[in-house]
Amino acid sequence: MGIRSCEKWIGFISWKMKEGYSTNYQVKNMKKCQTLDLMKHMHVQVLPFFNRQTGGDSLIDFLVDFYFLTIYLFMREALPGLKKYKYSGVDHSLLSRYVLKPFYTNFVIKCFPMSMAPNLITLTGFSFVVINILTLLWYNPTLDVDCPPWVYVSWAVGLFLYQTFDAVDGTQARRTHQSGPLGELFDHGVDAVNTSLECLIFAASQNLGMGWKTVMVLFASLLTFYVQTWDEYHTKTLTLGLISGPVEGIVILITVYTFTAIKGGASFWAQSMFRTVGIPHYAFIPDYIYELPFNEWYMVQGSIVLVLNTVQSSINVIRARRTRGDRSRGALLGLIPFFFTWTLIPAYLYLNPEILYNHLVPFVFFAGLVNAYSVGQMITAHLVKLPFPYTNVLNLPLAYGVFDSAGPFLKETFGLGWPSALGGGVYQVAYLFCMLGVAVGVYGSFVVDVIVTICDYLDIWCLTIKHPWNEEEEAKKAN
């Protein structure tokens, strides 16, 4: 819709220029607008033309089109920043350095033909996670029952293949001379969506069920990915520490899935960890700690790692900005959008226990897309040197859901509130799926528009190689 909207508006601009109306509509060409003041005289000049061109579309359609035009032109203005793109990454992981990278370089990369585009490798790897999710929805949609052992093995294999394909796409890009900003954007976009999907698979492997435990796992995973991307935006470098989610985190998950299969099901993780490993119940160990099951100890461990990674990323950002002579306070404000979203999410789930305990899976899909959209905006801004994106339009339906559900709650608790327009029960479930549909549409439109715009500007294709590298021809050009 975005591209068609832009063409419609560019047609309007051309028409006004032919009529000599150029004071507020200065356009150097149809692909790069230097100055555009479409807001002035909008009601008088734009809306009548819009109605003639579209047969009287609604004002909402008009505003949506104007929104997409703004994005389109803003991107066009910033596209020259893509020419300055240069990937920068640091990986401190010992596991990656001494085990995984030699495996990828000496064996895995040789399995892919030179004609295969790097982004296609990334997408193929993601397809294994999609298969895992479909298996989960068939065997354990409630996240709290034991599956056949082979299901857990398939999750381990699928995640291993995803990690492997995701790791070698950069090597494939370098050896085919297809490295570029689109690859980083595509890679981060896929990783962002995978993060929430893997939360569901992990919850199913631990029999966490639909409830606050799964929500806590989702919060920790999405915060880790958001902070890592926020770190990269400000430091201009992707930094992976000694322990990171893309390396050690995934290896731990693969191990957990495999061990779950060996033990015959996820019920194993509901046992007391101390008792299972043979630690005596000493008097100084409180009962609630001694009886804490494996799956809750994982949360304790994950919380510690989450805090350490967040603090380390904050230090990286502050240090990088001070080195450049910038103030660090503005950078730290970039964490507010995430915590604003995560103020709404628990509030919505608390006010709607039907969603929390019976329809959490589609809500996790929605929350994952909200985070993926924020991350996608950050990566795009990083690539084309745009200001940090503080807004996320997908918070609006979530905020409305909270507002609508808060009225009856306040009325019942304090005697002062307002009636719910959505009501309860099936209508809240329907609204959840509407939110999910909006998220798919918004994020999908964003991804398609950004990919098409970048491909058009750089004269490349996304999933195939448009200009194969020819060493002899390049040598002749150099001479």
TrEMBL record:
The keyword Transmembrane helix applies. This is diacylglycerol cholinephosphotransferase. Its cofactor is Mg(2+). Coiled coil: none annotated. The chain crosses the membrane at residues 120-138, 210-227, 239-259, 297-318, 330-350, 356-376, 388-410, 430-458. It catalyses: CDP-N,N-dimethylethanolamine + a 1,2-diacyl-sn-glycerol = a 1,2-diacyl-sn-glycero-3-phospho-N,N-dimethylethanolamine + CMP + H(+). It is a multi-pass membrane protein. Its EC number is 2.7.8.2. One of its GO terms (cellular component) is endomembrane system. Pathway: Phospholipid metabolism; phosphatidylcholine biosynthesis; phosphatidylcholine from phosphocholine: step 2/2. PANTHER family: BB IN A BOXCAR, ISOFORM C, ETHANOLAMINEPHOSPHOTRANSFERASE. One of its GO terms (molecular function) is diacylglycerol cholinephosphotransferase activity. InterPro entries: CDP-OH_P_trans (IPR000462), CDP-OH_PTrfase_TM_dom (IPR043130), CDP_ALCOHOL_P_TRANSF_CS (IPR048254), CHOPT (IPR014472). Belongs to the CDP-alcohol phosphatidyltransferase class-I family. Signal peptide: none annotated. It comes from the Eukaryota. It comes from Monilinia laxa.
